[in-house]
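Notebook p. 47: complex prediction with nicotinamide-adenine-dinucleotide.
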Amino acid sequence: MDTKNFNLFETAQKQFDQAADTLGLDRPTRALLRVPMREYEFSIPVRMDDGEVSIFRGFRIQHNDARGPGRGGIRFHPQETIDTIRALAMSMTWKSAVADLPLGGSMGGVICDPHDLSPLEMERICRGWVRQISQDVGPAWDVASPDLMTSAQNMLWMLDEYETIHAARSPGFITGKPVRMGGSLGRLEATGYGVIIAVREALKELGLRPEKTRASFQGFGNVARHAIQLYQRLGGTVASVSCWDQEDKVSYTYRKKENINFTELSAIANAFGEIDKAKAEKLGYERLPGDAWLEQDVDILVPAALENQISAENVKKISQQVKILAEGANGPTTPDADEAIKECGILVIPDLLANAGGGICDYFEQVQGNMNYYWKKDEVLGKLDVQMTSAYISLSDFSRKHKLPMREAAYVIAVERVAQACRERGWV
Ligand code: NAD
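Predicted complex, structure tokens below:
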């Protein structure tokens, strides 16, 4: 995780301040929304396979639940920080509000590196996280879901621990579960597809046909892979993808200008979204430095790996041909890079909307779980398309009407909706 000189939480607060200024928000509402309502930080003792006990640091941050139960991911990463989690919890609140879901925003995580953990150690960390926080989360209070380096299997272990502690079946405690165990069909695809549904709408506005466009992606994990699949299905050409290489501890960009072959690249990528460099080269891919993904002469850039990846140092390398930047990852663009991008006239589809698809599907999973009636995949993806398209159109209309860039417009819409819920509850 490259946090460079930016503290993601300070950035999130600045973005909030800007929206609060635009809205002329009163002092107590500002004070309430500028920081999380509740924060939990704890130690998770885990017996490792060699018999030694390791202590992992875990978090759950609940930013705001005025519009409904909190919801947000659990991330496993060796450089996780509480400030990153705070920032992401805040952005979950805004994300729920932009997509008009009756939910709030939370985020959690554990400082650990799943690359170095056996499946049994992962299971113990998952169960340990739940043991520390089980009284302060739950289906009607705060619902967890998978995020960076956490999987459906991890969610199921967490659910099992939660249900054991509470002696009740509570499928609504966690979303992103395996499909046969209360998960929703379509959840795997939802975030990546959502990114491309938003891109499709943006292309329509720009009068461009997807099949006449080219794109470059950062990341080859859950979000990027499904985004690539849908984009190629719409006829788009993917010139390059970049991903982390655990062996060399750097990222690489793999390029095939005429179009990457998604199936062959998937076959040589591991569960962490890392492409086997030797096999990729054998298949004719050029192996370029990690940052090369954003230097390509393409129409669309999709950062779908980590935060703070487009910064003042590399933003100037973006080609003049780029028309759309769709933020698949959370917070991939630093504020000074954002300014430079605005000056280039690139249409930014901000993370608040671009990667909301997974959250929308998590909400569908809760609805299906509550009814104990599960929809077919097409129905889920159809509903996702409707919700994403309508959120994109409202945001784009608002942005044009108020002459605000899309990112600012998304914050203003979200902050106003959450502030109104706080006022109606009599909190401020
Ligand atoms: P993932 O773990 O499945 O994949 C991450 C990908 O990023 C991998 O391909 C990895 O190799 C690559 N990567 C890591 N470090 C890199 C680097 N320095 N340079 C280039 N590539 C690098 O994660 P994911 O679920 O696809 O999530 C990606 C981003 O999207 C994260 O910011 C996450 O918070 C955000 N997000 C995910 C979801 C979801 O539903 N999975 C929803 C909303 C937002």
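Notes: The longest strand covers residues 53-64. The mean pLDDT is 95.
Next step: compare against the earlier run before touching the bench.
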